[in-house]
Design a protein that fits this description.
single chain, mainly alpha, cell membrane, membrane, cell inner membrane, Cell division protein FtsL, cell cycle
């Protein structure tokens, strides 16, 4: 057990010595700055990609809105055509046999 503990302890010491001799403080700082620049560049790429996707989605939704606005206008026009008084009167005369009463057959009732 004592020998195993010594090996584990020596391994940690060896790793510490390797990092101390191979990487100086300046090299560690340079490595950290390089990693920070790379992460910043990758973040910029991600944000740009996301922005382009959102703008494309916005343009698609704007085109859809315009299409629906035109369709709504067409439907309102169609509704007003179906609701015209002359058309309703013609349908009432043809299909239901209704006629407009003459002036003499109208009676006004007052309360």
């Amino acid at each position: 057990m004592n020998a195993a503990a010594r090996l584990v302890h020596q391994g940690a010491l060896t790793r510490h010595l390797v990092f101390t001799y191979l990487l100086t403080r300046r090299q560690i700082a340079m490595l950290m700055l390089t990693l920070a620049v790379l992460m910043s560049a990758l973040s910029m790429i991600y944000v740009t990609h996301t922005t382009r996707e959102m703008y494309a989605s916005y343009q698609h939704n704007l085109a859809e809105q315009n299409r629906l606005h035109v369709q709504r206008g067409q439907l309102l026009l169609e509704r007003s055509t179906w609701m015209m008084q002359a058309r309703i009167q013609k349908m009432a005369e043809e299909k239901l046999g209704m006629v407009i009463p003459d002036h003499h057959s109208v009676q006004i009732i007052s309360e």
